[in-house]
Amino acid sequence: MVLNFGGSSALREQILEGAPVDVFASANISTMESVTTADQVAGEPHVFARNLLEIAVPPGNPGGVNGLADFARPDLLIGLCLEGVPCGDFGRKALQNAGVVPSIDSNEPDVRALLTKIELGELDAGIVYVTDVASAAGGVEGVEIPASANVTATYPIAVLASAPRPEGAEAFVEFVLSDMGQAILSRYGFAPP
Questions:
Q1: Per-residue pLDDT for 13 more than 80?
Q2: What is the pLDDT at residue 37?
Q3: Are 80 and 127 in contact (CB under 8 A)?
Q4: Most buried in the list 29, 34, 157, 180, measured by CB within 10 Å?
């Protein structure tokens, strides 16, 4: 089994261009819907996890970021994921929910690139997923986003219609949806479907 952990939008484009893929898991429903609409999905997608957003800051929080309102401060270096990328769309929605017009200095192609810039201290803050802050193992600190502004990311998974190994693909999706698969996801901070 070969795993490709690219951004959802990039993976969608690979699938739509004919890449040989067995299973697609997306960080949002709309990206999965575009693959489904193109008749690339066998059966129906299944929601397998949920996630929330969190502000990531470098260790020690040198910019003194306390919440989403700080994203309007022109003295800070602020990053988001690009528009059209799930983390970028969700981050912008959270800022809109909070009534904040951000002063964005960097738009990154995916959440990993954004997190890396924050870890390196190149940015004072960015909006990523709760699971990204947890996986950074101290490389960043998290600042909670209030529930009133936060956005829930819903993750669907599906076997693709042109899967080279459909039996293995079905088995993998069943495992992800199983109690054992859900327990693994929970250990990494994902919420249940």
A1: yes
A2: 94
A3: yes
A4: 157
Over the stretch 79-89, which tens digit does the pLDDT of each residue have? 999 998 899 99
By residue count, the chain amounts to 193
The domain segmentation of the chain, as residue ranges, is: 8-50+153-187, 53-144
Q: Which two tokens stand for residue 139?
A: 């490389």
- What pLDDT does residue 7 have? 80
Fold designation for 53-144: D-Maltodextrin-Binding Protein; domain 2 (3.40.190)
Q: How far apart are CA 128 and CA 52, in angstroms?
A: 9
Identify which of 63, 28, 66 has the alpha carbon closest to the alpha carbon of residue 142.
66
Report the CATH number of the 8-50+153-187 domain. 3.40.190.10
- Give the list of residues 6+ apart from residue 113 with CB closer than 8 angstroms, or none: 81
- Measured in whole angstroms, how far is the alpha carbon of residue 143 from the centre of its chain? 17
Q: What is the pLDDT of residue 9?
A: 83
pLDDT of 1 above 80? no
**104 close to 80: Cβ distance less than 8 angstroms:** yes
Instruction: Find the mean pLDDT for residues 116-135.
Output: 96
